[in-house]
Amino acid sequence: MTPAARIISKLGGTRKAAAILGSPPTTVQSWKDAGFIPARRQGDVVQKAREAGVVIKPEDFFVLADAT
């Protein structure tokens, strides 16, 4: 699962994420299709998710390599 798909899933799916973020569903779907949320929107995503009671951490925006 890509970082964008994981975050959008945490927010309840494309339409619910769009409502929480105040963005059109097509914008949220384009992030999901691309696999990432643009850096300029990440802070807003964290803040609006927090206001909705969803915890999104900065590391959720990245694919972290296994530490082995």
From TrEMBL:
InterPro entries: Lambda_DNA-bd_dom_sf, LeuA_carph_isopro_dom. The lineage of its organism: Bacteria, Pseudomonadati, Pseudomonadota, Alphaproteobacteria, Acetobacterales. It comes from Roseomonas indoligenes. This is Uncharacterized protein. GO terms for molecular function: DNA binding. NCBIfam families: carphisopro (NF046037).
